[in-house]
Amino acid sequence: MNTQRWMSKQFFSFYLTWGIFLPYWTGWMIHTKGITVGQASLIMSLGLAARGLSTLFAFPALSGKFSSKTLLNAAAIGTLIFIICAIPASSFTTLLAATLLLHFFYPTLMPALDTAAGVLVQSNQLKHYGKSRLWGSIGFVAGGMLLTFFTGALGDQVIVWVLGVGMAIFLGLGLMPAPEILSKKPKSPVSKEGGMLKLFRIKHFGLVLVIVILLQAAHASYYNYGYIYLQEIHAPAYLIGVIINIAVIAEIIFFSVADQKFRNFSVGSLLALAALGSTVRWVMVFAFPSVWVFCIAQTLHAFSFAMGHYAFMKYLIENIPHEQIPKAQGLYSALALSWSTAVFTIFGGFLYEIEPRYAFLGMIVCTIPSMLLALRYRSVGT
């Protein structure tokens, strides 16, 4: 089996659906179901809280009992079920229930895939993480572009249907043969002695985790309000999907060269550059409420997200023992990609209702501290 190709297909098919869910789910609830920006903000924030519980506790615990392939397929089945449940939801309460349950299963696929990739790299079965991960970014672009075609023809109500079809495809691929190491059950239950606290005994793990938490939290306004903000500044409806995907094209370019061009960069240097790029990005969006400037700022996603994520994966592969990878991924997903984003989604929603541009400027309360901490980490060595 070509492991590099297998991992690439998994990343592509998952992020094809993520490219639909992440930018458009909030807009789908607002425009199709008729809820307010504040209600949608609350639903997504609570969903992120549920996501954090799932990835911090359920995912690491189940990783000690089931194979990676089993976990991926189970999470995909649960995701598909609750996408279907969201279709008839018509009130704030039913949308909240469907989104909470969806967040319990769906985002777990992200740390599960990165854990699988980390295990394959450590076992020398996957040569280049970046080259496989870039196919995830390509999938994200493909999902958004595909959705733009359907929404342009059929309206926003089609979003949930396209998402369901995409998840069915991911599940179908997951049922096919996988690398043998990912199909094996753990030899014995992971010891609970010390739990996740053991990770914080690894040199600089706590500091690196705080930095990436701040870096990822800074995307809260963009993920939840970027779509409606583009409408606010009168971006052509047929180009919104293209504009959103400029960020992911920049991400693709980064991942395609990262293994070669940034191999010799320290983790601290990568994190500092990511924080600088993120700060510049949100200041630009605030200072210049223009579609063209927003497009230019989108290219900085290569720094704000891709470089920060790559730096964390580089740290993980170089420093975290094989058996601790699911726990590290669980912490990263829960704290960096879920709970911190949930808090700043509420913060961003509050600012957005005062003035939309403030929601983006507000994110520098994350990026500037992350840059200072990254420079500190760089100075003490990696």
TrEMBL record:
It is a multi-pass membrane protein. GO terms for molecular function: lactose binding; lactose:proton symporter activity. Keywords: Cell inner membrane, Cell membrane, Membrane, Transmembrane, Transmembrane helix, Transport. The chain crosses the membrane at residues 12-30, 42-62, 74-98, 104-122, 134-152, 158-178, 205-225, 237-258, 265-285, 291-312, 332-352, 358-377. It comes from the Bacteria. InterPro entries: HcaT-like, MFS_assoc_dom, MFS_trans_sf. GO terms for cellular component: plasma membrane. Residues 6-360 form the Major facilitator superfamily associated domain. The keyword ATP-binding does not apply. It is found in: Cell inner membrane. This is PPP family 3-phenylpropionic acid transporter.
